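Example 3.
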Amino acid sequence: MEMPFGDEKHKLIYNELVNVLGPNYVSDDPAVMETYNRESQTPTFLIRGKPEFVVMPGSTEDVQQILRLANRYRFPYSIVGSGLLLAVVSAVKPYWCIIDTKRLDRIIKIDGKNMYAIIEPHVTHAQLQAEAMKKGLFNGIPEAGAQSSSLANHIFAGMQGTGYRTGYASRNVLGVEWVLPTGDILRTGSLTNPSAGYFWGEGPGSDARGLLRGLIGHRGAFGIITKIAAKLYPWPGPAVLPTEGVAPDKKCELPREKFRWYLFTYPTLHRAIEAIREIGKAEIGGIMHHWPPVYYPWWWAKSKEEYWRTWTTEEYWQRNVKNCVAICLWGYTSEKQMEYEEKVLKQIIKETGGKLIPDEVYQRWVPYAANNWVRDTNGNRMARPAGGYYISDMAIDSLDDCERNFESGWPILDKYTPPLLHSDHPAWVAPYDFAHYALAEMDVPREKDDESDLIAVGGILHDVITKSAESQLPAFLLSTSPYDRSGPAFANIHLLVAKLKKALDPYNVANPTRFINMERMGKAEA
Amino acid sequence: MVMEGGKVLPKDPWHRKYYWDMRKVVWNCSRCSVCKWVDSWEVKSARFAKICPSSLYYLFDAYSCQGRMDVSLALIDGKLKYEDSPALLDIFYKCNMCGGCDAMCKRVQDMEPLRVIQEIRTRLVGDGQLLPANVPVIDHLRQEDNMVMTKPKAERGKWAKGLRVKDLTQRKADIVFHAGCRLSLDEELWKVARAAVTILKAAGVDFGIMGKDETCCGGRAYEMGYYGELTKYAQNNIEAWTNAGVKTVVTACSDGYYTFKHLYPELGSKFEVLHIVEFIDRLIKEGKLKFTKTVPMSVTYHDPCHLGRRDHVYVPGEAIMGLYDPPRDIIKSIPGVELIEMYRIKEYAWCCGAGGGVIDAYPDFNRFTAAERIEEAKETGAEAIVTACPWCERNFIDAINERGDKMKVLDIVELVQQAL
């Protein structure tokens, strides 16, 4: 897609943006635009779409002004936090303006007594957690890495590797300052009542936060969130995360009296999932997962070579951690609690037929990678083995349906491998809220090239939507499935979403096409 | 597609075993943004969580490692021409070349992005795309053989007046002490070079200096993209040291140390290269230097980039080691000195701001970077910031004076001298 750089409308928009922000915070330089057009999951053909403007608002008022200009001059815009998932916000139309949030980077407050933090969009999980830990508090961390935006994670998708205890992140949003696509401000959650403060999420009722929720998030298509209050959880560990070694040979071991990892395997995935259910019922543990074996070298290996050697040549991880449940017990209150939880866990392992992994495997992995799920630092190694990866299929549902989703998803992976790479039927089960429900995700390494990108957009997308409709399992492709594509398979949800979009964004300027493609829907209606 | 035991592997062997290929590095940048931040495990403070000074100061992603990979890709693929972008030179030169991004990318992605930035700078100069602010600096170097603007070569060697050090232009010794441009020509820092000489003498080391005939190492010019200046000064220095019978080069300049150790061997150098802290640490451990005085002072240590994470030949999977321990061991061994660490240390250290040509080309950015480090040092409560590089010291002194701070700036050799 060629952008009409430099025409009269471009110049007009540029000047108006400079009027609002000053010249230091607006760029239309072609080289600067090159730096906002791709990431590991961006299909190669989308790389040709570059924005025409990048702007840096320094306040909510700045954001309002930018959005008002967008409505006045009808130019599309999108917003980036850390930019990790740029594929869903990169430019696909002329005059596209990317709003970079780097100047909105304040932790405004951490209320230790009432356990919440007020943050702006560019605060990372690592920053928030580092400050929260000093007050004995904890914020959940997504698998995307702790260098990603905490606010974006809370209001965009909501998945966190710590969700077993911290729940789905969008439910931890207590209050929201929201600049609607028209530029108006909506304060919701507890802020509906101006004097209520941020500590409690509900306000008097009819709360609009629900519009922001959902598995795929709103991708900025309903406006821009400039502040949230996020719920924090108790942290029984040290004020500073303890680490040793020099990168990439890093260790992180938490005090054993408060944190103990257990990893144990089962003959089948089904039995591993049943063990997760039993552990959840007992309400023990701080973090629990079933990671597919391919995750282990992703997180652990210090080099590509080590990854491929242990994954494909030695098959070390397939041999040792297949159908493996991993749980970290957290002694929130005392060592006695730790002792109790340990006894309960051992009983469940015994009753469900689990087998502890060999100590050699435990020692090889746990100190170097396990506490990534406390503060993720290696998540982005997923792109390392081959330049990219796909979240080929993901669903949040009951544990039973997670299992069904894998069974119906693996044949699709088989069909497209190659060009997708060896993944050994991945099945990541991330239980939330004591395993009341779980995320089922299948991640696959791929080379970043046209061949595998065309497969992803042309093949897997279609097959996953078809499979989901047939099985009634609402699976979504994070970066490539707008509502108008997947909605017909799910009670025509896209029709409701389209009405909301039209009401909130009458000129369709807020990240058009990615969340819902209103133009395509309009053509279809016609 | 490669198949191994029925498994589908990447067809590009680069993914299975890393080797240097610039386009593959830039193409495979995943925009994870780890290059902008201190490793998440190591974030101890929201205020001091960034690792890239350029990204923090200039904000737009173009001024981060990730952005520089994107622009490099566009240049390599011909999608972007030099004349297309007024910001192009700034994008590559508003970088301290501190290697923070590089350490992070090696940890997470197994890649060497700093090498890309270096190669693009060299290419820019080769193609005549000269940063105007760099031209007088290089002209000065060519005329005066040093990187300290306005200082004539005639002043080089004055720092050693009265020290009675062997002149290696006339005599021979196994060891040459190379003071470097900054220590030789920045009068306020002469005391550091003099302290180094005093310590070496106290330990009974047989060494000499090149005095007024000493020249620049060429390393800073190389980082600005001028490879020819590196080769010229490498040839000069190698010849002079060879004629003087030198076997070991000792320097108190971190830039010089990096250049001699990592860049000169490709140009024919076979000398052993030691930074003065490494040498002093060795002398202490061999019992040749003994402390007789107490120095009651709390200090924090700043890792110079070229002495720390950049003092490292990349081997995938191996720790990004630099001279992290010798300076700390020296400080801890001095009676009365208390070492209090900053948040960002060793491979995560924040740069002083002086590197990559920034000190001359972008003084505002240079000062900002130094001031950030001083702020971090102040949080430790230490009385002094100690380092082992004269460029860092110059920057910290200026930042402290400009802000009216009270913190002292010391070279590690000054601390050692006080304890002798």
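The radius of gyration of chain B is 22 Å. The mean pLDDT of chain B is 97.
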